[in-house]
């Protein structure tokens, strides 16, 4: 199965891209959004596409070469591929100034389509899914250096595990699952995604009609921790709005409530500006609005997309425009 791009038209339209623009796709993935953005910016524009997964970069490099050959286009000349974490977006753009003349606060649009792509979930090397047996890894860069799910599951304390399952997985049986992990690992280390998933299936009663695997929330929590998803997103959002030029847009697609809440609160805070208590008649904080919200409630996929792609069910696009 190949990755299906979520909210493709909605996200590209929301960015309001014109010929000659400079756009950053902070999450290249399989390149569905990037490809559309490349067409929109035209010959005189640039698309900087970032992914921490080297595999995604190499695949897209090949894909663009094939598209260019088959269509006698030269999309590659307006594409800059960067294998890095989007939390470094400011440094990435700073370095591009010397090479490609892309200036700080001259970016017209920034997109992030958060989470993972289906190829990562299907590839055992990433050890992300409870659908197949694989070593517990969960790193989106596919590396085994740095924190992995194996370390969290086998080395963290009961309290630490219970806390992440509750806070990052919103798992109501967080404590019981953490206790069971500790009990089982005293007998033998938990090495694979199946061992962990089966442990959860053994102790968690779920409504079979819900269609949700009992391990879903614990796996979500582990992926968030291992990839520092919320911390990285926070840094990315703060840096991104500084890079945008006036009227430049930031668009973020998220897939779970923790991410969406973070993006929503960030955009609302930056749109509000003044943080003085209501009782004070004149502003003394001097905080100014930095962005304007585009659609307060965020954008959800339409019926057609929902029918074609289950993953789109939880997607929410939020957009802010730099003042
Ligand atoms: C949902 S996919 C993007 C799909 C893409 N928009 C498309 O249409 O094919 C998310 C991608 O972002 C990458 N990613 C996740 N977190 C990242 C981060 N902090 N920095 C850079 N890339 C990241 C993942 O490796 C994955 O390839």
Task: Write a brief caption for the model.
The protein has helices at residues 8-15, 32-41, 54-71, 89-100, 118-122, 149-155, 158-169, 174-187, 193-203, 216-226, 229-243, 257-272, 303-308; strands spanning 22-25, 46-51, 79-83, 107-113, 244-254, 291-299, 316-322. It is α/β, with parallel strands linked by helices.
Q: Assign the CATH superfamily of the largest domain.
A: Vaccinia Virus protein VP39
Structural class: alpha/beta
Give, in spatial order, the strands making up the sheet with the most strands: 3-2-1-4-5-7-6
Unreliable stretches (pLDDT < 50, length at least 5) are none
Largest sheet at a glance? 7 strands, mixed
Structural notes for this entry:
With 323 residues, the protein is of the alpha/beta class. It is 45% helix and 15% strand. The protein is built from 13 helices and seven strands. It has helices at 8-15, 32-41, 54-71, 89-100, 118-122, 149-155, 158-169, 174-187, 193-203, 216-226, 229-243, 257-272, 303-308, and strands spanning 22-25, 46-51, 79-83, 107-113, 244-254, 291-299, 316-322. The protein has a seven-stranded mixed sheet with strand order 3-2-1-4-5-7-6, sandwiched between helices. α2 (32-41) links the parallel β1 and β2. The two termini are 41 Å apart. It binds S-adenosylmethionine.
